[in-house]
Write a structure and sequence with these properties.
single chain; 2 domains; five-stranded mixed beta sheet; 12 helices
Length: 335
C-alpha cells in the first residue's frame, strides 16, 4: 500500500442494530486512497473502495444504461466503467468469452468497516434476469477474492447465468487503485463454479444458498487458520472432511451429495493454494461475510431500508462522512 500523502482524522462508525445508539470511534484514514487491510503484501491484501462504481457489461447496449442505472440506484456520484471479455480473461481466466456475452452489470459502494460483503440481485423491468448465480454465492466468492466491506448490486437487461458479473467488481477495484491478485480471483471463481450444481439441485429451498456459502466460508476460514498456524497444507480429503462437518453444522449435509462435496472441496484446494489463504485479515473479514450469508434467503441481502429509517440509522447518517450518506440514500432507492 502506498504511504498516505495526506492524513485526516475521521470517525469510524459502529452501529448496534439492536436499538443502541450509533457510537463514534477515532480513525485515521488517507484522504485520497481506499482503506486497505494487508497482512504482508498485495497478494494477501484485503481491499475496500474509496468511491462508488457502476460497471456495465460490454454486451449491454448504451440505450439501456438509464434503465440499468434506475434499477441499481446509480446516480452521478458513481464512477462509470465497462467490463469486457479481456477483463473476464484477466480476472476469471475460466475459458473464453466475447464482449457481446458480457451482459451482467454491477454497482458497487463502500460500507462500514467490518460489514463484510453483501449482494442484492435486482429485477430488470420485473424480470429476474440473473438465472443461476445467487446473491450469497456472489458475496462469499467476492470475499474469497480479496474484497470486503462493500455492497454489490447485480442486474442484467436480458436473461443470463450471471457468472461474469464479478468481473465488473474486480475491475472497479483496479480502477480504485487496488490490483487484485489473479490467482485469488481465479480460485474464488472456481468456488462459484463448484457450488452451482448443489445450488441448482436445491433450488426449492430458499435457505440453502446461504447455508451452503456459510459452510464454504467456515471451511475456508479453517483452512486459512491451519495454514497460518502450522504452515501445513490440508489434503483434499482433509478439506472434504472439514466441509462435511461445516455442512452438518449448517444442517444441509444430507442435501449435499458426495459428488457435490468433492467438487467444492477441489475448489477449496485452489483457495488454499492462493495467496489470500495466508492473510490474517481474511480470517476476520470472512467471518463478517459468513454472518451476512448464513441466514440470508432470496436475492436481497442488504435490506438496509429499515436500518436507514431507524433512530440509530438517522443518528448515524448525521455523523457519517459524505460517502456513507450517499450509500444510505443509494440503498433506500432500492425499495
Amino acid at each position: 500500500m502506498n504511504k498516505p500523502i495526506k492524513m485526516l482524522a475521521g470517525l469510524m462508525l459502529a452501529v448496534t442494530l439492536a436499538g443502541a445508539a450509533a457510537v463514534a470511534a477515532p480513525a485515521v484514514v488517507s484522504a485520497d486512497t481506499a482503506t486497505e487491510q494487508s497482512s504482508s503484501s498485495s497478494s494477501t491484501a484485503t481491499h475496500t473502495l474509496s468511491s462508488s462504481y457502476v460497471v456495465y457489461g460490454a454486451g449491454a447496449p448504451q440505450s439501456v444504461y438509464d434503465q440499468l442505472n434506475s434499477v441499481m440506484g446509480v446516480d452521478s456520484s458513481f464512477k462509470k466503467l465497462t467490463a469486457t471479455a479481456s477483463d473476464y480473461a484477466k480476472y476469471i481466466g475460466n475459458g473464453t468469452t466475447t464482449d457481446a456475452a458480457m451482459i451482467s452489470s454491477v454497482a458497487i459502494a463502500p460500507t462500514d468497516p467490518g460489514s463484510g460483503v453483501k449482494v442484492n440481485i435486482k429485477k430488470y423491468n420485473g424480470q429476474s434476469n440473473i438465472t443461476e448465480v445467487t446473491a450469497q454465492q456472489y458475496a462469499m466468492v467476492a470475499q474469497m477474492a480479496g474484497v470486503t466491506d462493500i455492497t454489490i448490486v447485480v442486474t442484467a437487461n436480458r436473461a443470463v447465468s450471471g457468472e461474469s458479473a464479478l468481473t465488473g467488481v474486480y475491475k472497479a477495484f483496479e480502477e480504485d487503485g487496488h490490483q487484485l491478485n489473479s490467482q485469488n480471483t481465479a480460485a474464488a471463481n472456481s468456488v462459484l463454479d463448484a457450488t452451482q450444481d448443489a445450488i441448482d439441485a436445491n433450488k426449492d429451498d430458499s435457505s440453502y444458498p446461504g447455508k451452503l456459502m456459510a459452510a464454504v466460508g467456515d471451511t475456508s476460514k479453517q483452512i486459512a487458520q491451519q495454514k497460518q498456524s502450522s504452515g501445513e497444507l490440508a489434503t483434499k480429503a482433509d478439506i472434504q472432511e472439514m466441509l462435511n462437518k461445516a455442512l452438518e453444522k449448517r444442517g444441509i449435509a444430507d442435501q449435499t451429495t458426495t459428488t457435490q462435496q468433492e467438487k467444492i472441496a477441489g475448489a477449496l484446494v485452489n483457495f488454499q493454494n492462493s495467496p489470500i489463504s495466508s492473510s490474517k485479515t481474511y480470517i476476520n473479514n470472512v467471518t463478517n461475510t459468513i454472518n451476512n450469508v448464513k441466514n440470508s434467503t432470496g436475492n436481497l441481502m442488504n435490506k438496509a431500508k429499515n436500518w436507514a429509517n431507524s433512530e440509530a440509522g438517522k443518528e448515524t447518517v448525521k455523523q457519517a462522512q459524505n460517502w456513507l450518506t450517499r450509500f444510505i440514500n443509494w440503498v433506500k432507492s432500492w425499495f
